[in-house]
Write a structure and sequence with these properties.
Layout: E1 2-6, H1 10-21, E2 25-30, E3 35-37, E4 44-47, H2 51-63, E5 68-70, H3 79-88, E6 92-95, H4 101-117, E7 124-131, H5 141-153, E8 158-161, E9 169-176, E10 183-189, E11 194-200, H6 205-218, E12 223-225, H7 227-230, H8 233-243
Parallel strand pairs: 1-2, 1-4, 4-5, 5-6, 6-12, 7-9, 8-9
Antiparallel strand pairs: 2-3, 7-10, 10-11
Helix pairs in contact: 1-6, 4-5
Length: 244
């Protein structure tokens, strides 16, 4: 693959290392201050920048007919606008709050457990996420995705950062500490016991390898996709339904 890196922070640098090791070429890379290479040579773009830059980068990709994999979070207030723009240009977008294959499996486990515990209201659910000190958004996009999965299956109406104020609130605690790639925990607590789901990232390579997997998958496609599409997770559910 010829890859454009839009955003060249720590994640972009890890993606570059893994991509080159796999025989891919980085033909363009950019930051908020500079760029180098030729974007028009790219087969696909991988976008890990900032919330302020993400929509500009996405627009550039759609208008340039370059499929894009986006892992930047905290820009989703512009989601409908970007979807419309992608469709207008027959573009392709894979968006995920977290590209780690392990996190995607974690999401599916969370979905299943939330569905089960929805029939047992004695279990209260809460979410905790830990990240490095330089992470700009809180809560993390992954924590918000976890909250949305919970709210799809339960009576929680909204997530809140900090302690829940009403029974309708789903609490998310965001903790920032040095040298932490990312840890997410979902607590299911009742008066007599507790179930905890945990995903802990040891390095950024899990996120980077998942982004590269998505980049290879999206080439030649048009539309809006998620990692569920890339990993064929919906196919697994369909197979289970057929078996039952």
């Amino acid at each position: 693959m010829n890859i454009a890196l839009l955003g060249y922070g720590k994640m972009g640098q890890v993606i570059e290392t893994l991509a080159k090791a796999a025989g891919h070429k980085i033909v363009f890379k950019s930051t908020s201050k500079s760029s180098e290479g030729q974007l028009d040579l790219a087969d696909v773009a991988i976008e890990f920048s900032t919330p302020e830059a993400a929509t500009t980068n996405l627009r550039l990709c759609f208008e340039s007919k370059i499929p894009v994999v986006c892992g930047t979070t905290a820009w989703l207030d512009h989601w409908d606008e970007m979807v419309a723009l992608c469709q207008k240009h027959d573009g392709a977008l894979v968006y995920a709050s977290n590209f780690s294959v392990g996190v995607q499996i974690f999401f599916e486990l969370q979905r299943h457990l939330a569905q089960i515990t929805s029939r047992h209201p004695e279990y209260r659910i809460s979410i905790e996420e830990r990240h490095h000190l330089h992470k700009k958004d809180a809560p993390s996009g992954t924590a918000i995705s976890l909250a949305q999965i919970v709210m799809e299956s339960t009576n929680y109406r909204q997530w809140v950062l900090g302690p829940a104020k009403t029974s309708d609130d789903l609490s998310i605690e965001a903790i920032r500490e040095p040298n932490t790639p990312g840890t997410h925990k979902v607590y299911f607590q009742s008066p007599i016991d507790e179930i905890t789901l945990t995903h802990k990232a040891h390095t950024r390579e899990g996120f980077a390898s998942g982004a590269l997997l998505a980049a290879h998958w999206v080439i030649g496609k048009t539309g809006i996709f998620s990692m569920k599409d890339v990993l064929h997770l919906s196919d697994i559910k369909d197979d289970q339904n057929k078996e039952s």
